[in-house]
Amino acid sequence: MKTKEGTGSVVQVNLTELQNSNAQLPQGSNQPPAEAGFNSPAGFEMLQRAAKMLSSGTIFPERFRNNIGDCAIVVDMALRLNASPLFVAQNLYVVYGSPAWSSKFLIGLWNSCGRYSAIRYEFSGTEGQDDWGCIAKSKEWATGEEFAGPAVTLSMAKKEGWYEKRGSKWQTMPALMLRYRAATFLINTVAPELGMGIRTVEEAEDVGE
Asked: In this structure, are residues 182 and 188 in contact, taking their beta carbons and an 8 Å threshold?
């Protein structure tokens, strides 16, 4: 088995080998090679093989170990995002029974997708006061169009009930939370497909059960 340098590269190569292992078709067959996933019996078999291997790995996050079902979902999501399963697993959490991305992961998807410039943040108002806010901005490379997400302020966080929740990071790291929420707003309004419709951990925790 070939390996490549970099985090999660062995996993990625293993998935590629699983894809290629089913590439040989009977002569005269017009059917394309199966791909790992839920779309065909052969693809589902490859998905299970990858999930079984990952669930037994000590480098994989502990919350996924010996859980072939969740690992299969991680592999499927990684293939859809063209990302390493290890990278996906490290940034996928379960909050109140539902999957949630880390905000860093979602921002990373946007910055590395090649369609937009890296997100930049603009602050306004008085730091620490209710009018202190942040807007996330970016530009689409293909058209040059600039995008700005909805503004997020401390006043909004308080009115929505995010600020006062027990253990809320809005009270201890407001600048970071303003950036995370502003970036999430931008991504969800311009390219929601990047996050596959899944909330971030911070959104899920703010909303609660």
From this structure: no
Query: Measured between alpha carbons, how far is residue 191 from residues 14, 30, 149 in Å?
Result: 30, 36, 11
Query: Cβ-count burial of 88 within 10 angstroms (0-12 exposed, 13-18 middle, 19+ buried)?
Result: buried
| C-alpha count within 13 angstroms, C-beta hemisphere, residue 68 | 9
| Contact partners, residue 46, CB within 8 Å, separation at least 6 | 18, 19, 21, 22, 34, 35, 36
Secondary structure, 3-state, 19-87: HHHCCCCCCCCCCCCCCCCCCCHHHHHHHHHHHHHHHCCCCCCHHHCCCHHHHHHHHHHHHHHCCCHHH
Helical segments of 121-173, H only? 154-159
Give CA angle at 207 (205, 209), nearest 5°. Answer: 80
Give the torsion through C-alpha atoms of 168, 169, 171, 176, to 10 deg. -150
Is the entire prediction scored with pTM above 0.90? no
User: Whole-angstrom Cα distance, residue 155 to residue 164?
Assistant: 12
Q: Using CA atoms of 162, 62, 78, 209 in order, give the dihedral in degrees to the nearest 10.
A: -30
pLDDT in tens, 127-161: 999 999 999 999 999 999 999 999 999 999 999 99
Q: Can you say whether the dihedral through the CA atoms of 174, 199, 208, 201 is positive or negative?
A: negative
